[in-house]
Design brief:
Helix content is about 25%, strand content about 30%. It has 11 helices and 26 strands. The strands form 5 sheets. Strands 11, 12, 13, 14, 17, 22, 23, 24 and 26 form a 9-stranded antiparallel sheet that branches.
Length: about 525
């Protein structure tokens, strides 16, 4: 991405980030190229000072940050850091050092074949992740689609909106976005709020631009473009079928007649000449699409019958005689997991971190307190304390993980006799697997039917010093391996077919009355 020099009045640093230049500017602030304390290049969005002084805006930004942190990195530039309480609120995301879709089309012309379909799948994958976290992008356009090693990534969550916050925080005289990519409902100031269907409409415009070099409602002025969006059918040019038919669905004037992002992704993966299995040459995109499919794969029954009918009609037309994928109620979201029982949650198949939480404030995990113990964010860590229980767990994400996976977290045993407890494939209270990390040993155990059975244990005093140590728990081919500071300590088979997927839990266990452990920098990945 092109970078401009810093201007007079621009900050030199923000938080712990040294600002190197400008990447862009919008109505809400400027985006800078920055370098973090670890030397990593990042994109830092700083909010305009006059907006930072408005309590309403700061509240909205705080809400956006919390939502953006929850967006998985499926074809998106993930949030790395943020401080909505800073004098100048800022948001830090991954720096994607690649051209935008607008630059690619301008330099090389419209995309065709697999390149076009890959953009369509990549952007739909990103929207599935964004909407699944309860966020609306609101400014999806070719300049916000960047290419990283050939894989499209959607950027700019700085103007995203939480679903429930939109109507409360967006004034009727404020409009965020680019006219050519705005859905019809965006121009109706009487609407109580704009939903995720507006992003799906923008996807249709973006894909039309990628495949034809122009937008489907292009006119001589923004006002004329808006009029065409409101009253005229889209001009899809030479956009090929079946992609053309899918794009037409997303450009419906009525938002209720558009597919959701999850339905859109299903159509793209299960129809056309470039299905998921044919993306072998683009492994990162393939992984991201499959992960997003699992993330939001099940469509609620009974939702928008007219949309489903339209989706089914396009799928049947495109795949006549080929066996159409069932969009509603299908428990098996990928041929590779066809053995998953019908009542099991769809397993995510990931692309990098599925959950990344520094654990320095409420996010994926939350603070709690009861008569047994506490989970509190103290000194940049999640500290778990218990007074009279052998087992205490903090409230964390409800996401389920299956198949090969890794759990990495930095652990410290704060009081003698305390053991950190990292649960995985947890399906209910007291049911699943757990790694007990103590000062004298590490144990892997199976829990179920009111009984705990050790399945692997090994002596280790690495955690006894009370300092911080990196714990890696890797499950591969039904074998779990626990590693401390890069040294494998113990492994065991985890092949209970009833526990093929489940949640990850952080907590403690101890035989002493006063126990305390600390966690920070948690990463949960699928492999």
């Amino acid at each position: 991405m092109p970078t401009e020099a810093l201007r007079p009045g621009d900050p030199q640093t923000l938080g712990g980030y040294r600002l190197l230049g400008r990447l862009g500017q919008g109505g809400m602030g400027a985006v800078y190229l920055g370098r973090g304390p670890d030397g990593r290049l990042v994109a830092v969005k700083a909010i305009r000072p006059e907006l930072a002084d408005e309590p309403e805006f700061r509240a909205r930004f705080r809400s956006e940050v919390n939502r953006a942190r929850a967006v998985p990195s499926f074809c998106t530039a993930p949030v790395l850091d943020a401080d909505p309480e800073h004098a100048t609120p800022y948001l830090v995301v991954e720096y994607v050092d690649g051209p935008s879709l607008a630059e690619v089309v301008a330099e090389r012309g419209p995309l065709t074949g697999g390149d076009l379909h890959s953009v369509a799948i990549g952007v739909a994958t990103a929207l599935t992740a964004i909407h699944g976290a309860g966020v609306i992008h609101r400014d999806l356009k070719p300049r916000n689609v960047l290419f990283s090693l050939g894989t499209p990534k959607v950027i700019d969550f700085g103007i995203a909106r939480a679903f429930e916050a939109t109507s409360h925080h967006t004034r009727t005289d404020q409009m965020v976005g680019t006219v050519a990519y705005m859905a019809p409902e965006r121009f109706d100031t009487d609407r109580p709020g704009v939903g995720p269907a507006a992003d799906v409409f923008a996807w249709g415009v973006v894909v039309t631009y990628a495949g034809t070099g122009r937008t489907p409602f292009r006119a001589d002025s923004p006002a004329a473009t808006a009029a065409r969006i409101l009253t005229q059918p889209p001009d899809l040019g030479e956009l090929p079928s079946p992609l053309r038919d899918i794009v037409a669905l997303t450009l419906a004037k009525d938002p209720a007649k558009r597919p959701t992002a999850a339905e859109l992704l299903e159509l793209l993966l299960d129809t056309g000449s470039h299905s998921l299995s044919e993306l072998a040459g683009r492994p990162e995109l393939q992984k991201a699409a499959r992960a997003a499919r699992a993330f939001r794969g099940r469509i609620r029954r009974g939702r928008r019958r007219t949309v489903i009918a339209g989706v089914a009609a396009v799928a049947a037309l495109a795949c006549a005689g080929a066996g159409t994928y069932a969009v509603i109620g299908s428990p098996n979201l990928d041929p590779e997991v066809s053995s998953v029982p019908a009542n099991a949650a769809p397993p995510p198949i990931g692309n990098g971190p599925m959950i990344l939480d520094r654990l320095d404030r409420a996010g994926q995990w939350n603070a709690s307190r009861d008569e047994i113990g506490t989970c509190a964010f103290t000194g940049g860590r999640l500290v778990v304390s218990s007074r009279d229980s052998q087992y205490y767990v903090c409230r964390g994400p409800k996401d389920t993980f299956a198949g090969d996976q890794s759990i990495s977290v930095t652990v410290a045993l704060l009081k003698p006799g305390s053991c950190a407890s990292v649960g995985f494939r947890r399906v209910d209270d007291g049911v699943g697997y757990v790694a007990a990390l103590c000062g004298d040993k590490v144990t892997l155990a199976h829990e179920g039917d009111d009984a705990r059975t050790p399945i692997g244990t090994a002596p280790s005093t690495m955690l006894a010093d009370g300092g911080e140590h990196r714990v890696d728990l890797v499950v591969r081919d039904d074998v779990a391996t626990a590693t401390l500071d890069g040294t494998p300590v113990v492994e065991a088979r985890v092949d209970d077919r009833r526990l093929i997927s489940g949640r990850v839990e952080l907590g403690l266990e101890s035989a002493v009355a006063d126990a305390s452990v600390a966690y920070r920098d948690a990463e949960i990945r699928t492999l």
